Amino acid sequence: MQRMGQASIAAAAAALTLIAGCGGDDGAGSGTVQIFVEPEDTIPEGLEPGTGEENIQDGWKVTYDRFLVTIGNVRAARSDAEETLSDPSVFVLDLKNAPATRYVIAEFEGVSAVRWDRFGFDLPNAREGAKTLAPTTEDDVAFMVENGYSVFFEGSIEKEGGESCPPEGECVPAEEVRFSWGLSAGTSFDDCATEDELPGFSVPTGGAIAVKPTIHGDHWFFNNITAGVEITKRYAQYIADCDLDGDGETTIEELKQVNVADVFGQEYNLAGAPGLETAYDYVVAQARTLGDFQGDGECPRRALLP
């Protein structure tokens, strides 16, 4: 996956401190847990065309102009004890313009300095009561709540000599195709583990651990629907091909009119989400995989949220 930024977390210490539930000490001392929300670099930096593992394989360049997510309800537990941590707060966050220190959405003090091997969080559909942190605006929150979105993103794909080849009709020149997609794809993510498959996180005695739900910006370009380790290639041609009226923008309504088989060819394996009928179904299915952990770690236990 795309490299993750190495921003310092020191300036985040002023974040609101929350109380850990059902705490204990186990004689191991205690420490602090800070929950950071971090965007993968694909969100602020976009994706480049090329043949590399993280490039768009069919020659399109991807740029995001706006990227909002709804995130929260963080929780942690230990399989060897009854201790739990939880904070039900939900935030709308602007990931395109995330601060260098990232967003701290929860902080727990006096946490037993042991391994907490169960961690989870939600990307829910936005509801009244959602909070935010600067530079995200109240208008961003109102927009997400009004529409009940878990994620909203807009931007464009660009390719010199690019074409749009709709399922019915002739190919036409299309060197830039825009998109502006809001999705109500609320999903919970649990059993999070690092890229090295270490579950949860360890709290250092007298210190702090940064726990980072990480939101990726490239999943709707994947040629499969991931449930674990992301072994995949990335393609963007389907976005151009779903521009049915040829106006240079592919809309949600157009995605809903295009059958999966008409734009996703042999280079795709969509067995990970059976029952997909339209291109819109594909995008929603990918939106339900966005929640990762500590950069490229996975949260394989997922459930739909209302």
Account of the 3D structure:
The strands form four sheets. Strands 3, 4, 7, 8, 9, 12, 13, 17 and 19 form a nine-stranded mixed beta sheet that branches. Strands 1, 2, 5, 15, 16 and 18 form a six-stranded mixed beta sheet that branches. This protein has a two-stranded antiparallel ribbon with strand order 6-14. It is 12% helix and 33% strand. The protein has 306 residues and is mainly β. The relative contact order is 0.20. The chain contains six helices and 19 strands. Strand 3 and strand 4 form a beta hairpin. The protein has one domain. The N terminus is likely disordered. The radius of gyration is 20 Å and the shape is elongated.
Feature tags:
306 residues; single chain; six-stranded mixed β-sheet; elongated; mainly beta; disordered N terminus; 19 strands; nine-stranded mixed β-sheet
Question: How are the SSEs ordered, and which strands pair?
Answer:
Elements: E1 18-19, E2 30-39, H1 42-45, E3 61-77, E4 84-94, E5 103-112, E6 115-116, E7 118-123, E8 131-132, H2 138-147, E9 151-158, E10 163-164, E11 172-173, E12 176-183, E13 187-190, E14 201-202, E15 208-211, E16 213-215, H3 237-241, E17 249-250, H4 252-257, H5 260-263, H6 279-287, E18 291-293, E19 301-304
Parallel strand pairs: 1-5, 2-15, 2-16, 4-8, 12-17
Antiparallel strand pairs: 2-5, 3-4, 3-7, 3-9, 6-14, 7-13, 9-12, 10-11, 13-19, 16-18
Helix amount: 10-25%
Approximately how much beta-strand content do the residues carry? 25-35%
Low-confidence spans: pLDDT under 50, at least 5 residues? 1-25
Q: What average pLDDT do the residues reach?
A: 91
| Count of beta strands | 19
Computed structural class? mainly beta
